[in-house]
Design a protein that fits this description.
single chain; alpha/beta; 8-stranded parallel β-sheet; about 20% strand; globular
């Protein structure tokens, strides 16, 4: 089987699973956006993915992403930054990506806003929540998320679209459901505060191993890499 057909078939299977997961919990499959995670994959492989029908791509590393975005600029795709973003690299991410998923501090929010102001744009962002309170993962603690959302709401060149999370690794996907549910409830709580300049419209949660559990708990964006592109280099 050619790589083109392999990606096409894997993408079709993932979309069928997303549709089934949505229907199972009474949701519309159209509510859920698939972000194909293309980190470490070549421009040629990503181009094959786009030809197969991928419309959203997720990258973790700015330099790698810059090269791909430049090479694939003629394609109408949406680029998501899903890796840890350091404040001193914000200037490279702002404007390059349509949505930055990983705002995790007031300092970073201010720097992303400053860079967006310099470019004359409004940068769409998500707040990353460290729902498992894991020392090895980035993200704001759940109890500090509302305060960070309030800080972001005061920044004119940021548009807060929702929350993102990476739950702890579990042996079974269903074990992650309480984490996904907690992030959804947190988003609902923030939305209820009716803070200006904030839309809790997006919940970026769920990856290759647990995206169906995330959909059951309200995910609007799922991030799938290995199940589409194969194992990473």
């Amino acid at each position: 089987m050619s790589e083109d057909n392999s990606i096409r078939e894997k993408l079709s299977l993932i979309r069928k699973r997303i549709r089934a997961a949505a229907v199972d919990c009474g949701r519309s499959p159209e509510e859920i956006r698939l972000v194909a995670v293309s980190k470490t994959k070549s421009v040629e492989t990503v181009a094959r993915g786009i030809a197969a029908g991928i419309t959203d791509l997720g990258e973790n590393y700015i330099q790698e992403a810059r090269e791909k975005i430049a090479a694939l600029s003629s394609h109408d795709v949406t680029w998501h930054f899903i890796g840890h973003l350091q404040s001193n690299k914000a200037r490279y991410a702002v404007g390059l990506f349509d949505l930055i998923h990983t705002i995790d501090s007031v300092k970073l929010a201010h720097e992303v806003n400053r860079q967006a102001l310099r470019q004359g744009i409004v940068q769409k962002v998500l707040i990353q929540v460290n729902i498992g309170q894991e020392a090895t993962k980035s993200g704001v603690l759940a109890e500090e998320t509302t305060a960070l959302a309030l800080a972001v709401s005061s920044l004119d060149n940021l548009s807060l679209e929702g929350l993102m999370t990476l739950p702890p690794m579990f042996n079974a996907p269903e074990q992650a459901r309480p984490c996904f549910a907690a992030v959804r409830k947190l988003a609902e709580k923030i939305a209820a505060e009716q803070i200006p300049n904030i839309r809790m419209a997006e919940l970026s949660m769920g990856m290759t191993g647990d995206f169906e559990a995330a959909i059951a708990e309200g995910a609007t964006i799922v991030r799938v890499g290995t199940a589409i592109f194969g194992e990473r280099q």
